[in-house]
Write a structure and sequence with these properties.
Blueprint lengths: L22 H6 L3 E7 L20 E6 L2 E5 L5 H10 L4 E6 L4 H4 L14 E6 L10 H8 L15 E6 L5 E4 L3 E8 L5 E8 L2 E6 L11 H7 L4 E5 L18 H10 L4 E5 L7 H14 L3 E3 L5 E4 L1
Parallel strand pairs: 3-4, 4-5, 5-6, 10-11, 11-12, 12-13
Antiparallel strand pairs: 1-2, 1-14, 2-3, 7-8, 8-9, 9-10
Bound molecules: zinc ion (2 copies).
The site of one zinc ion has 5 residues, from loops.
Length: 305
């Protein structure tokens, strides 16, 4: 079940803000906590016109039971990594949707990966079936001289790299179940469904829809979920000029959520051209269209229980 509180300026959209989350209670309950550390698509945009919704690229922290992990390593993973270390946590997973820059280029700045006391299990589902280099090779290439001065080998955490096939399911510690599906994106991408004691959230980015034809892979994955975070890069007006670019619209996210009986839909992967004024207008329009819609913002924290 999903409890949602009123939106207050500078606070989380749902339920309780971080300050009032009782962590012990969270660990003993069925709740899933998540925090948006980066909601932007394509490239980080740190201008004063992007501060309300945030300029960092894709990164979402998830906590369920007593396990805490992260999805995507966009530039938002840098501040997440600092918070993660401060909390004293040592062990985590990094689940990647794919390896376009906006989802991996925070990784070289993910401080826990340099800490020999940490163990990070990095997983990706879009490379194995393509016969390409695996996820370790891709992250290593990103850090090659002369693009970056510090090689992957300088990371002293116990790093485990694993490629799987989108469509596989697996478990994480603390009775967390992860289901996956392939998305429609250039070079491939993986959608995730995270389940814990009857609560469920889905992370569906980056993906392109075919107008008038709902994606069966996505419908199957998100069926009945409490929350779906969806690639809403373009408006319906912008979409026709961007066919083939691999992204979707909030309207399509809403249609998928409504068809699959999903409770709430987080509009995500905002286009850098969509500044705060643009996103404010979009939020009004989306919330008027369906009460389940809301626009994700950097720093927003949700509890699903
Ligand atoms: Zn992206
Ligand atoms: Zn992409």
């Amino acid at each position: 079940m999903c409890h949602w509180g009123p939106v207050r300026e500078g606070e989380s959209r749902c339920v309780r803000s971080t300050e009032c989350v009782d962590r012990k209670r969270l660990h003993e309950s069925m709740a899933i906590r998540l925090k948006f550390w980066g909601v932007r698509g394509s490239i980080a945009c740190a201008t004063p016109q992007h501060m309300k919704y945030g300029g960092n690229t894709s990164c979402i922290e998830v906590e369920a039971g007593d396990y805490r992990f992260v999805m995507d390593a966009g530039t938002g993973i840098r501040p997440f990594g600092n918070a993660f270390l401060q909390s004293g946590t040592k062990c985590s997973h990094l689940l990647l949707t794919h390896t376009h820059w906006d989802h991996i280029n925070g990784f070289p700045f993910f401080v826990p990966a340099y800490n020999p006391e940490c163990a990070i299990h990095i997983m990706a589902g879009h490379l194995k079936s393509r016969g390409d280099e695996g996820i370790q090779d891709i992250l290593s290439t990103q850090m090659h001289n002369p693009m970056f001065p510090v090689p992957l080998e300088a990371m002293q955490a116990k790093l485990r790299f694993e490629d799987f096939d989108a469509g596989d399911s697996f478990s994480l510690p603390s009775d967390i179940t992860v289901k996956t599906a392939a998305l429609n994106h250039p070079n491939g991408a993986t959608g995730y469904r995270i389940e814990h004691d009857g609560s469920s959230i889905c992370y569906i980015t980056d993906t392109e829809h075919v107008p008038g034809q709902m994606d069966e892979n996505i419908l199957g994955l998100i069926e009945g979920a409490d929350l779906v975070i969806y690639d809403s890069t373009y408006t319906e007006e912008e979409f026709p000029a961007k066919v083939g670019w691999g992204h979707s619209t909030w309207n399509e996210g809403m249609r998928l959520c409504q068809a699959a009986g999903v409770k709430r839909h987080a509009i995500f992967h905002h286009d850098p051209e969509h500044d705060d004024a643009f996103m404010d207008k979009l939020a009004v329009e989306a919330e008027a269209a369906w009460e389940g819609n809301f626009v994700s913002r950097e720093g927003m924290e949700l509890i699903i229980e």
